[in-house]
Amino acid sequence: MHTMPNNDRQNETVWPISKFYFEVDLSPTMTGIAFQEVSGLDLESQVIEYRQSNSPTFSTAKMPGIKKYGNVTMKRGIFKKENSFWEWYKEINANTIKRHTVSIKLLDESGNVTMQWNLANAWPTKISGTDLKADGNEVAIETLELAHEGLTVINE
User: Rounded to 5 degrees, what are φ and ψ at 27?
Assistant: First the structure.
């Protein structure tokens, strides 16, 4: 029978990590950026189905194929005279773009990194400005979508 520890301090093995305190490093010059939302930290292995003609089972074997990484979407408020995403996006030319390792850091209550996702060779594939409404009562939000070539997770 498993019992909960009976002490006043919070045991870090009992409670999962909260997801609301995080920051993003987009490049060596764009660090510690606060976003409202980050999504798309996905990794998928495509499935290869194969069956030999003399197999006694009438079904295919499934093997792992090429890894596939989804684009990562980040949303944040728009700030006056802050155009770093647009400047990065303007650097896209035919087959040339500044690619960066992007680090998404989940922080604990003291601001220490508890988990980190690194995106290899990331670059902006899409930027969406805010929608505008005359009767709106929300913050202006811009969306940055990043393509990348690999996702690694560090969980210490």
Answer: -165, 175
Average pLDDT of each block of 10 consecutive residues along the chain (156 residues)? Answer: 53 80 92 95 95 89 95 95 87 82 95 96 94 93 96 90
- Report the distance separating Cα 67 and Cα 69, nearest Å: 7
Question: What is the per-residue pLDDT for 17?
Answer: 85
DSSP labels, the chain: ------SSSPPTTTSPPPSS-EEEE-SSSS-SB--SEEE---EEEEEEEE--TT-SSSS-EEEEEEEEEPPEEEEEE--TT--HHHHHHHT-BTTB---EEEEEEEE-TTS-EEEEEEEEEEEEEEEE-----TT--S--EEEEEEE-S-EEEEE-
* Contact (CB, 8 A) for 67 and 45: yes
The tokens describing 90, both together, are 């303007």
Q: How far is CA 46 from CA 40, 63, 67, 143, in A?
A: 17, 9, 6, 28
The whole model's pTM is what?
Answer: 0.81
Topology adopted by domain 22-43+69-155: Pnp Oxidase; Chain A (2.30.110)
What's the pLDDT at 89? 87
